[in-house]
């Protein structure tokens, strides 16, 4: 005999059916119990990009703070962060472990463009939210191809467009040399330059060189850029190689206009290892408040960040911008969880990630807010030009976006 829901309610057995529906819903929420939610992450705690490991440590510390406050809707956050050494094959191995053995509810802030590229099809085929990936590659905005993936930081390609437009406006007879990492992170920068230069590429670009993350140094590439006659260089490199680039340019007594990717402007992670005096005049972009900038000494958002750092990350160097990044992106994740309420199904987690409106996480530059929609997987779009003074990154001009 078939009993409709209306008939069941009339017979007084609706509660039983309701309980069955709730039980079924629970089975559709991997990694979720009444008291906890499992979140998976991969991070380069070792390898060539290990300077980014403080991001993962910040995320773990922030989730600990949330748990100390009672969790979210009564659930504690079980944050499982595994080392992938910035190696895509290892990322695949670790993500499969997180999903198939640890049964995480979703992935959050897996770091690195090549690493996320290695798992994006797996995540989307299995409808696993791949949230706020630790990469600004422009590909993450392709919501039609990868509806279960969303970025967080501004696009690398947009960043390159901004540098190119400023170069054309301010440099007489520019001759540009490019150095980029040979993967989807680095390749976005020549694409952004070409977006602006168009058919002027061959007249302006004197050399476009790449490096591998397994290379010991990039000195030979810097030497070749100088030999090409470049009077402007754009370096798209992770911190280890960015610091090498700054030191090598200085050792050659070369004075090109120097643009540097914003993923490598941490004072603690790049500028000090490179020699703070060697980087004077370097231009980059920012969307986060710089912890070394005295302009933010009395800023409420940065005061809150410093209080968090003092309590949950004692002993860490708070001049490291990675701590600010990790704090801001984790606050974004926590907001999504709060919006989810008690429905932590993968579908609703993804839905709420696409439903952020003018979110202020306290550490973004004035005028920058986080917004998403089902057709907009670019939470942060604006940036501001900054220049290294030898002590801090000084902001100039208004907020900018790409072409």
* H/E series: HHEHEHEHEHEHHEHEHEHEHHHEE
Counted by DSSP, the helix tally is 14
**Which stretches are low in confidence, meaning pLDDT under 50 for 5 or more residues running?**
1-27
Main sheet summary = 4 strands, parallel
Q: Radius of gyration, rounded?
A: 23 Å
Describe the structure.
This protein has 403 residues and is of the alpha/beta class. Helix content is 41%, strand content 15%. The protein contains 14 helices and eleven strands. It has helices at residues 5-11, 14-27, 53-68, 88-100, 113-125, 156-170, 184-197, 201-204, 219-227, 239-251, 267-274, 300-312, 321-340, 346-353, and strands at residues 36-43, 76-83, 106-108, 130-131, 176-181, 205-211, 232-236, 257-260, 283-286, 383-388, 393-400. The strands form three sheets. Strands 2-1-3-4 form a four-stranded parallel beta sheet, sandwiched between helices. A four-stranded parallel beta sheet has the order 6-5-7-8, sandwiched between helices. Strand 3 (106-108), helix 5 (113-125) and strand 4 form a beta-alpha-beta unit. Helix 4 packs parallel to helix 5 (113-125), helix 6 (156-170) packs across helix 7 and helix 10 runs parallel beside helix 11. The longest helix is centred in the C-terminal third of the chain and has 20 residues, at 321-340. It starts with a helix and ends with a strand. The model is unreliable at 1-27 (pLDDT under 50).
């Amino acid at each position: 005999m078939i009993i409709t829901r209306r008939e069941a309610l009339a017979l007084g057995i609706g509660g039983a059916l309701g309980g069955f529906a709730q039980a079924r819903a629970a089975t559709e929420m991997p990694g979720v119990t009444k008291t906890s939610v499992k979140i998976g992450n991969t991070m380069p705690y070792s390898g060539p990009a290990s300077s980014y490991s403080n991001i993962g440590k910040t995320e773990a510390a922030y989730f600990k703070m949330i748990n100390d406050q009672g969790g979210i809707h009564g659930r504690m956050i079980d944050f499982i962060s595994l080392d992938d050494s910035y190696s895509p094959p290892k990322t695949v191995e670790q993500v499969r472990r997180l999903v198939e053995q640890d049964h995480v509810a979703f992935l959050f802030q897996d770091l690195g463009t090549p690493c996320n590229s290695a798992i994006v099809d797996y995540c989307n085929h299995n409808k696993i939210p791949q949230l706020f990936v630790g990469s600004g590659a422009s590909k993450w905005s392709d919501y039609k191809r990868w509806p279960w993936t969303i970025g967080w930081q501004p696009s690398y390609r947009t960043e390159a467009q901004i540098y190119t437009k400023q170069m054309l406006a301010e440099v007489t007879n520019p001759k540009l040399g490019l150095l980029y990492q040979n993967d989807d992170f680095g390749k976005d920068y020549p694409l952004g330059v070409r977006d602006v230069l168009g058919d002027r590429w061959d007249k302006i670009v004197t050399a476009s060189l790449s490096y591998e993350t397994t290379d010991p140094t990039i000195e030979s590439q810097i030497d070749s850029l100088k030999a090409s006659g470049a009077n402007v260089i754009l370096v798209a490199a992770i911190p280890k190689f960015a610091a090498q680039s700054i030191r090598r340019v200085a050792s050659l007594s070369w004075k090109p206009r120097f643009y540097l990717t914003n993923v490598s402007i941490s004072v603690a992670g790049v500028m000090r290892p490179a020699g703070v005096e060697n980087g004077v005049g370097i231009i980059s972009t920012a969307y986060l408040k710089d912890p070394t900038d005295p302009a933010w000494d009395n800023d409420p958002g940065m005061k809150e960040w410093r209080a968090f750092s003092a309590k949950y990350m004692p002993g860490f160097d708070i001049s490291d911008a990675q701590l600010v990044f990790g704090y801001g992106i984790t606050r974004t994740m926590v907001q999504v969880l709060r919006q989810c309420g008690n429905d932590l199904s993968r579908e609703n987690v993804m839905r709420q990630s696409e439903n952020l409106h003018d979110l202020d996480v306290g550490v973004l530059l004035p005028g920058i807010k986080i917004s998403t929609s089902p057709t907009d997987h670019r939470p942060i779009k604006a940036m501001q030009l900054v220049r290294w003074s030898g002590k801090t990154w000084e902001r100039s001009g208004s907020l900018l976006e790409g072409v």
